[in-house]
TrEMBL record, chain A:
Poorly processive, error-prone DNA polymerase involved in untargeted mutagenesis. Copies undamaged DNA at stalled replication forks, which arise in vivo from mismatched or misaligned primer ends. These misaligned primers can be extended by PolIV. Exhibits no 3'-5' exonuclease (proofreading) activity. May be involved in translesional synthesis, in conjunction with the beta clamp from PolIII. Gene3D superfamilies: 3.30.70.270, 5' to 3' exonuclease, C-terminal subdomain (1.10.150.20), DNA polymerase, Y-family, little finger domain (3.30.1490.100). Belongs to the DNA polymerase type-Y family. It comes from the Bacteria. Keywords: DNA damage. SUPFAM superfamilies: DNA/RNA polymerases (SSF56672), Lesion bypass DNA polymerase (Y-family), little finger domain (SSF100879). Residues 14-121 form the UmuC domain. The keyword Protein transport does not apply. InterPro entries: DNA/RNA_pol_sf, DNA_pol_Y-fam_lit_finger_sf, DNA_pol_Y-fam_little_finger, IMS_HHH_1, Rev_trsase/Diguanyl_cyclase, SulA_CellDiv_inhibitor, UmuC. This is Nucleotidyltransferase/DNA polymerase involved in DNA repair.
TrEMBL record, chain B:
GO terms for biological process: DNA repair; DNA replication. It comes from the Bacteria. GO terms for cellular component: cytoplasm. It comes from Streptomyces calvus. Residues 5-72 form the Polymerase/histidinol phosphatase N-terminal domain. The lineage of its organism: Bacteria, Bacillati, Actinomycetota, Actinomycetes, Kitasatosporales. The keyword Disulfide bond does not apply. It catalyses: DNA(n) + a 2'-deoxyribonucleoside 5'-triphosphate = DNA(n+1) + diphosphate. It is found in: Cytoplasm. This is DNA polymerase III subunit alpha. Keywords: Cytoplasm, DNA damage, DNA repair, DNA replication, DNA-directed DNA polymerase, Nucleotidyltransferase, Transferase. Residues 925-948, 1095-1137, 1151-1176 are annotated as: Disordered. Belongs to the DNA polymerase type-C family. DnaE2 subfamily. Belongs to the DNA polymerase type-C family. DnaE subfamily. One of its GO terms (molecular function) is 3'-5' exonuclease activity.
Length: 322, 1176
């Protein structure tokens, strides 16, 4: 009963407020892991002894402080490990923390649907449900070998352990926000590739400037195209080198889009997500003999400064100006 | 000022392109003072016959033509093929599909030299349709002596001009000029657009200048797409529906100018164009003159050149006449038939035969009879069940040739009802064949007569409300889920009635509340009304002609089967004088053939259905018990009720029963007097003793057409041929008046007294044109009796046939429930025992009485392919799961489905374990791993410890996979809750008293809103609760509360009052209805308190009952005429009252007789909520 999972009810812009609240948690324990966009895990093993209070009591303190200092309410789940804490959070309401006692984990898990388990995605859940293993209780009762036959050796073992309440996860401190996303919706079914590309350009520009502002680079880019029938296509591409350069991001986004070969698809929104964020200073950049590349990067730098001074619409690509 | 003729006009028959019907175009042309009008639909001449008829009515000369996509000549610039390469290299879209490629240039072809022009046009269209994909005319086929060609903005020449390349245009023009020479025209069009694209003034001027320079005559056209101004948005929707994309205002909308402008407006356009081209203003008149001159050349006469009004039969030598004339051959065949059937010694038969042959000779139809007889012989030789239906059964010659089974003399059927000297229409013989082998029959006919003489008939599918909503909604970028919901809320009504239905129908009230939200949707939906949206093969018509068929109709391959299909529909081909033979696929014939084959396969007993004993007491006992589900013609709720009251005991009773259950007799209230007289509760009366002979069989009530013919012939002394003509005249109130005078005069002259004449006339007039042709009824009654006989004596085989060929109005699961109720054991699906089709199996045998069970078929498994089913059946038996997997090679999902419903239970009891093994086999097969399976020895697979399917999950899987509750009835599980509610089962309902208020529940089997005598809309529904069927009726006063629930729920709980009309006639008049599935969920989640709360909710009745005096809708008729109204003015038909008054004084509710809202009867998975834990 030592790990808390906290979800802050953040006001928009959501992510911007998170670091301050993480700081609040770090006043209690150094072992805090951010769960962007609005959550965090905190391991209170040492804190319980230091403050002389139980984790549930500390949770109340945290909530009060968050409200008092930042005006942000939060919902807290508590459990013996990160997994149980996360699952407890799903049950929690604003108010006292939802706690799962150490010896009650199996009971707590028994009637949950399999999809509630962290690490069980839609595909795994579908597989398990197809075999009648729709609750964690049933998963726990199934033989390990059968589970391994269903979902593979390693995943099967993990599933078996988790379903039986064995939580081997740890809270990893200082795991920062690892992705950035933005979306461009259309007001009607949009088929025009020209307008799709404009949306991609503006989304890539936005991601680029946000990353540069935060001093980050991303390793891969994910494109999600949403259609009128509420389905979506998702494609990910790893960039040749980690970057926050808008031109490189745009090029990658265009590449992803062209690969879909869309013609008559009724597109309702285009979303881009930059993933694998790392500090910019750790990234390497391949120099070229082409002076244009360097010039473009310098222009971008200047444009960023102009934007910082005069607002985000001060400098933008010509094709987006209209 | 010279007149103007539109040379380039498309109608709605240009699928999803033209926005007006040909009739409206002809009307508008006449109104706007035009003397002639061309119809040049895209890729088709399907509208030509209607157009010609409408033109004749409006006094406008029709011109015929078509607009075709033409491939570039091989020598033309730009035809090097690099474009094609680029197109092929385009990536396949991951979603949404590729664009519809409409890039091929189009030219307009007008038939010029009479029949030759028409034949050329037909040939070009047929040739264009041989291309794969969209119709495209290859350059090699692009030549014709009798056609005038217009090259407009959409042609390759026009496009080159639009691109500002007159040099290229000149090069592209050269091959055209080479082929068509002086018959080539350049078409200028001005739609007031900007730029240089199609419809722009600059392109029109360039075209004109180019024509002068090239010395080719220019013509002016308006490229008409709709008859009236203001239909531009409709054209946009049609464009969007054709290209399968939403309307995009940024991409350019229709100009709104492409309507049928009058001569003045066209002169104005001509003036603008010639001025822009740099000519003097007077040149405009020259341009119009050129247009008129071109129109004047195009002379095609609908009668002489299209062949309207004349008949073409296959050549006599093809139908077995040899060198003799067809008439001689027919006479000798008929005489041979007399001897063969043993009538040789009977004088009346000889006289009748000669009389009929005279009539046939009078019309010269001998070839026709020989043709039909040839087809029937061929079909019979293939071992396919075949029967004649329709009035043709009244002809003795047909009987002698072996076309019709029933002896017309014995059954009192009249030749005159079919063909007489006075009747000058094509006779019509329909033949019924097994539906499953219908295409085989078509191929045999084509094989016999050749593709140059045979073609199937087209059937345009027109927009009705649901499709219109779907297409307009998609064009307007509406949410697909929303479109689906809105479309499904509607009953299957005409699109033009959409807004009226919203105002009036109680089940649409919720939708009507949010009507405004959808903006222009409703207006556009109504504008699409009755426009063709696709063409399918008519399900039964086959054209037979002489070798000139291809010069009279274009023939295109059908999409699925690749059979040749004429572009005209069934009415058009009659007008064109093409002989149509209706070959109907009757599923009951297939079902009975399957049942007979099963009995022979399983027991060795041969049944000849055509020779089953007449008057079998067990069969009539079954019919009288009204347990006639699945029997031909007598299975509907109304028929079961009628059969219960009528209590038939002879074949003749069946004939009468079938004839009585028609809208006409029901409307004219012939049913009640008949039943009263039959059961001796009322005396039998005849208007005059002379009529006793013809009315005796029906207790003095007129039921058949033949009887009316007899009455008229007896009283007036005119021949029967004349009497049939009189009978046809009765339906028209105007001619009825004339007939009344004539009838009275003639009867008086024959010495009948005034009272007799008056009374007889009343009967004849009330009969109107309704009633039923006895020949039809006799033809129907034969399979009715045969199917009932099978049901009584070979129930398992009967159900096997029914389930295999799925005839009738009820879902399969209801037939299965009926089988279970009648004690036929239902054997589950088993890969070692089930066949492709449903089979029978001996379950137990004791002292001569064998119990046969019904083994379910592989073909009913969801998404199984024919090849897979056949492979599984061929490989039987299988020793183990591995054996099954390797030899039957089912797809992974199919194998999973088989495991779910227990078809693999022989290899291991736990169905989920089986699923796991299958997955691993699948993975192993893919990964190339060894086929090692953890087997626990022998046939059965080792357990894996997964939880097995619960009984509920098994039932759910059966419904999902087989669409049937095979192991037990789905209502069985809800017994406790139904007992709590005090629901009366169908079996116990039989003891209920008239007037009792009861609760009934069950799965909805069928819902209809047929026309009824009172003129009210009544919703009839049938529930199935496992113990039997409950027939429900909901009257007007309960619709506000119940209609929506009844149409849109699968499981129903209904409160109602028992109505008894006879010992076996029972129905429940519903007053409240709930969705039982909802209540079951509430019971499970919230207990009885929750159910009580739900039942306590007000049903919404009475609060806002429709009291608005005369909404626009009330002034409209449903399905009364075929012509659509223009957009936005759909509500102009005068209609004073809520009901429709039929000519006979019979009133009909405007929304009656429509396929109701919702999804039709419940099948399969919809009956069962699927829990997240259920398999698959």
């Amino acid at each position: 009963m030592t790990v808390l999972c906290v979800r802050f009810e953040l006001p928009p812009p959501y992510e911007a407020a998170l670091p301050r609240l993480i700081g609040l948690l770090e006043e209690f324990t150094p072992v805090v892991q951010a769960l962007p966009p609005d959550g965090a895990l905190a391991d209170l093993r040492g804190a319980e002894r230091y403050f002389g209070r139980t984790a549930v009591e500390l949770a109340s303190v945290i909530r009060v402080r968050a409200l008092a200092l930042h005006g942000v309410d939060c919902v807290i789940g508590a459990g013996p490990g990160p997994m149980t804490a996360r699952m407890a959070l799903r049950d929690a309401r604003p108010g006292p923390a939802r706690a799962v006692p150490e010896d009650g984990v199996r009971n707590f898990l028994a009637d949950r649907p399999v999809a509630a388990l962290p690490g069980v995605g839609t595909a795994t859940a579908r597989t398990l449900c197809a075999y009648g293993l729709d609750t964690l209780g049933r998963v726990a009762a199934a033989p390990l070998s059968t589970l391994q036959r269903l979902v593979g050796a390693r995943a099967g073992r993990e599933l078996h352990e988790k379903a039986n309440g064995v939580d081997r996860g740890r809270v990893v401190p200082d795991a920062v926000s690892r992705s950035l996303a933005t979306e461009r919706p259309f007001t009607r079914d949009e088929l025009d590739p020209g307008r799709h590309r404009r949306a991609l350009l503006s989304a890539a520009e936005e991601l680029g400037s946000r990353m540069r502002a935060a001093g980050k680079v991303c390793r891969s880019l994910t494109l999600t195209v949403r259609y009128a029938d509420r389905t979506a296509t998702t494609r990910t591409r790893t960039l040749p080198e980690p970057t926050a350069h808008s031109a490189a991001l745009t090029e990658a986004a265009y590449g992803l889009y062209e690969a879909l070969g869309l013609q008559r698809a009724r597109v309702r929104a285009i979303a881009l997500r930059a993933e694998g964020l790392d500090p910019a200073e750790r990234a390497s950049h391949q120099l070229t003999f082409d002076p244009v590349d360097e010039k473009v990067r310098r222009i971008e730098e200047v444009a960023d400064r102009a934007r910082a001074k005069f607002g985000p619409r001060a400098v933008m690509p010509g094709s987006l100006a209209a | 000022m010279p007149g103007f003729t539109h040379l380039h006009t498309v109608s709605g028959f240009s699928l999803r392109y033209g926005a007006s019907h040909p009739e409206r175009l002809a009307e508008r042309a006449a109104e706007r003072g035009m003397d002639a009008l061309a119809l040049t639909d895209r890729d088709t001449v399907a509208g030509s016959v209607r157009f010609a008829k409408a033109c004749a009515k409006a006094g406008v000369r029709p011109l015929f033509g078509a607009e075709l996509a033409v491939a570039a000549p091989p020598t033309a610039p730009g035809a090097r093929g690099d474009e094609a390469v680029r197109r092929d290299r385009r990536r396949t879209p991951v979603r949404g599909g590729a664009f519809i490629d409409e890039s091929a240039p189009r030219a307009t072809f007008l038939a010029r030299d009479g029949a030759r022009g028409w034949a050329d046009l037909c040939r070009l269209i047929s040739a264009a349709h041989t291309a794969a994909g969209l119709p495209l005319l290859t350059w090699d086929e692009n030549h014709a002596g009798g056609l005038t060609v217009l090259l407009g903005p959409d042609s390759d020449v026009g496009r080159a001009l639009a691109a500002g390349r007159p040099d290229r245009a000149a090069r592209l023009l050269a091959p055209w000029r080479e082929v068509y020479g002086d018959a080539l025209r350049l078409e200028t069009v001005w739609h007031g657009r900007k730029g240089t694209g199609p419809g722009s003034l600059r392109l029109a001027a360039r075209t004109l200048g180019f024509a002068a320079e090239q010395r080719i005559r220019p013509v002016l056209s308006n490229a008409v797409r709709y008859a009236d101004p203001g239909l531009g948005p409709v054209a946009d929707v049609l464009d969007a529906a054709r290209r399968l994309v939403p309307v995009d205002p940024a991409k350019g909308l229709d100009s709104g100018e492409a309507w049928l402008k009058d001569a003045g407006a066209m002169l104005g356009a001509a003036e603008r164009i010639v001025e822009a081209a740099g000519f003097r203003r007077e040149a405009a008149l020259r341009l119009l003159e050129q247009t008129q001159a071109t129109a004047a050349e195009c002379l095609v006469d609908p009668e002489d050149d299209l062949g309207m009004g004349s008949v073409h039969f296959p050549e006599p030598h093809l139908v077995g006449a040899g060198r003799r004339t067809a008439q001689r051959a027919l006479a000798s065949r008929a005489a041979a038939g007399m001897v063969l059937r043993g009538y040789a010694g009977r004088r009346e038969y000889w006289e009748r035969m000669h009389h009929e042959l005279d009539i046939i000779a009078h019309h010269g139809f001998a070839s026709y009879f020989l043709t039909v007889s040839q087809v029937v012989d061929d079909v019979r030789e293939m071992g396919i069940r075949v029967a004649a239906r329709g009035s043709g059964a009244g002809s003795l010659v047909n009987h002698l040739l072996g076309i019709a089974h029933a002896d017309p003399v014995e059954h009192g059927l009249l030749m005159e009802r079919f063909l007489s000297k006075e009747r000058v229409v094509l006779p019509d013989i329909d033949i019924d064949v097994e539906s499953a082998r219908r295409l085989e029959v078509y191929r045999a006919i084509i094989g016999r007569f050749g593709t140059e003489r045979v073609a199937t008939v087209a059937m345009p599918e027109t927009y009705r409300v649901r499709h219109a909503i779907r297409d307009v909604g998609a064009a307007l970028s509406m949410d697909p889920a929303e479109i689906d919901r809105v479309a499904k809320s509607f009953p299957h009504i005409r699109a033009r009635d959409a807004r009226a239905a919203l105002d009036e129908l109680p089940e649409l009230r919720e939708l009507a509340g949010e009507k405004e939200k959808y903006g222009r949707l409703w207006e556009l939906v109504e504008a699409l009304d009755a426009l063709p949206r696709g063409v399918a093969m008519h399900p039964c018509g086959v054209l037979l002609s002489d070798a000139s068929l291809l010069t009279r109709t274009p023939v295109v391959p059908t999409s699925g089967e690749g059979l040749p299909m004429a572009q005209f529909d069934k009415d058009d081909v009659e007008d064109l004088g093409l002989l149509k033979l209706d070959v109907l696929g009757v599923r009951m014939q297939s079902a009975m053939a399957h049942a007979v084959a099963e009995v022979e396969r399983a027991s060795g007993e041969r049944i000849d259905l055509d020779a089953v004993p007449e008057g079998d007491p067990a069969t009539y006992g079954l019919i009288r018990s009204t347990e006639t589900l699945g029997c031909f013609q007598i299975e509907s709720p109304g028929q079961r009720d009628l059969v219960g009251r009528l209590q038939p005991s002879t074949f003749h009773d069946l004939v009468v029963d079938i004839s009585l259950f028609r809208p006409g007799p029901v409307a004219a209230d012939m049913v009640r007097p008949f039943i009263e007289a039959r059961h001796g509760r009322a005396p039998v009366r005849y208007p005059h003793p002379d009529l006793q002979e013809s009315l005796e069989g029906t207790y003095g009530v007129v039921v058949f057409h033949e009887q009316v013919i007899d009455i008229v012939a007896t009283l007036t002394g005119c021949g029967r041929g004349e009497a049939d003509r009189v009978r046809r005249g009765l339906s028209d109130p105007e001619s009825q008046g004339r007939i009344k005078v004539w009838f009275a005069q003639r009867a008086e002259a024959n010495g009948y007294d005034a009272e007799t004449i008056q009374r007889t006339w009343e009967i004849v007039a009330a009969f109107g044109s309704y009633g039923f042709c006895k020949a039809h009824a006799v033809a129907f009654a034969v399979p009715t009796y045969q199917s009932a006989w099978l049901k009584a004596h070979h129930p398992a085989a009967f159900y096997a046939g029914l389930l295999t060929h799925d005839p009738g109005m009820y879902p399969k699961r209801l037939l299965l429930a009926d089988a279970r109720r009648r004690g036929v054991p239902i054997l589950p699906l088993d890969v070692n025992k089930s066949g492709v089709a449903h089979r029978i199996e001996l379950v137990s045998e004791s002292k001569g009485s064998a119990v046969w069970g019904l083994r379910l078929a592989l073909s009913d498994v969801h998404n199984i392919s024919e090849a897979e089913a056949a492979r599984i059946a061929e490989g039987q038996p299988y020793a183990s799961l591995l054996d099954f997997w390797e030899r039957a090679r089912p797809s992974r999902p199919l194998a999973g489905r088989l495991a779910q419903v227990g078809a693999l239970d022989a290899f291991g009891a736990n169905r989920r374990d089986l699923q796991l093994h299958l997955t691993e086999l699948h993975r192993g097969a893919r990964g190339g791993r060894g086929d090692q399976l953890p087997l626990s020895g022998g046939r059965r697979t080792a357990p894996a410890g997964l939880p097995d399917l619960t009984p509920e999950e098994r039932l759910s899987a059966e419904l999902g996979v087989l669409s049937m509750d095979a192991s037990r009835h789905l209502m069985d599980d809800h017994g406790t809750f139904l007992a709590e509610l005090g629901v009366v089962s169908a079996r116990r309902l039989r003891e209920a008293r008239h007037g009792d208020t009861v609760l009934v529940a069950g799965a909805k089997a069928a819902t209809q809103t047929p026309p009824v005598r009172s003129g009210k809309r009544v919703i009839f529904s049938t529930l199935d609760d496992g113990t039997g069927l409950v027939d429900l009726a909901f009257f007007d006063d309960s619709h506000d509360a119940c209609a929506h629930t009844v149409f849109h729920s699968w499981l129903l709980l209904v409160r109602g009052v028992v109505q008894r009309r006879g010992p076996r006639s029972l129905s429940v008049v519903g007053s409240a209805a709930w969705n039982l599935a909802d209540l079951l969920r509430v019971r499970q989640e919230e207990g009885l308190e929750g159910v009580a709360a739900r039942l306590a909710e007000p049903g919404g009745a009475g609060a806002e009952s429709a009291g608005d005096g005369d909404g626009p809708a009330r002034r409209r008729l449903a399905g009364s005429d075929g012509r659509p109204a223009p957009a936005g003015s759909a509500a102009r038909d005068p209609m004073e009252d809520r009901t429709i008054r039929m000519p006979t004084g019979y009133e009909m509710h405007p929304w009656a007789d429509l396929r109701p809202a919702g999804d039709g009867p419940a099948v399969g998975r919809k009956l069962w909520h699927r829990s997240p834990g259920s398999a698959g």
